[in-house]
TrEMBL record:
SUPFAM superfamilies for the chain: RmlC-like cupins
All copies of domain Cupin type-2, residue ranges: 30-99
Region of interest: Disordered: 104-123
Organism the protein comes from: Nonomuraea longispora
A Pfam family hit: Cupin_2
Superkingdom assignment: Bacteria
Record InterPro entries: Cupin_2 (IPR013096), Flavonoid_dioxygenase-like (IPR052538), RmlC-like_jellyroll (IPR014710), RmlC_Cupin_sf (IPR011051)
Name of the protein this chain belongs to: Cupin domain-containing protein
Secretion signal, residue range per the UniProt entry: none
Amino acid sequence: MHHFTIATVAEESADFRRVLWTGEKSQLVIMTIPPGGEIGDEVHEGIDQILTFVSGVGEARVGGETSEVRQGDLVAVPAGTRHNFVNTGVNPLVLYTVYGPPEHADGAVHRTKEEADRAEHSA
């Protein structure tokens, strides 16, 4: 069993992206997006993604629609849908996300978006 006090774990991480758990069919990842930062415009072919926001405020840009997100919000991104999440606040935008199936290397830690981008482009 893997048990997480997920909001606390996410809040305590300053890393842009940290893979907490990887199973055969899904993956749990926490993210911290700095003020003015973003995840980056992307599409996951064949991978659904669910994002739950722990703290901060931002914009969800999913499939051509834009919506504000804040603590307690959840956004589902179906496979093949273009999306980006942007921090519009003065504090970090903290979230956890579940990918199905897994998207990132098991145990991956990327301290910054630039580091995460380099890892994705070298894979």
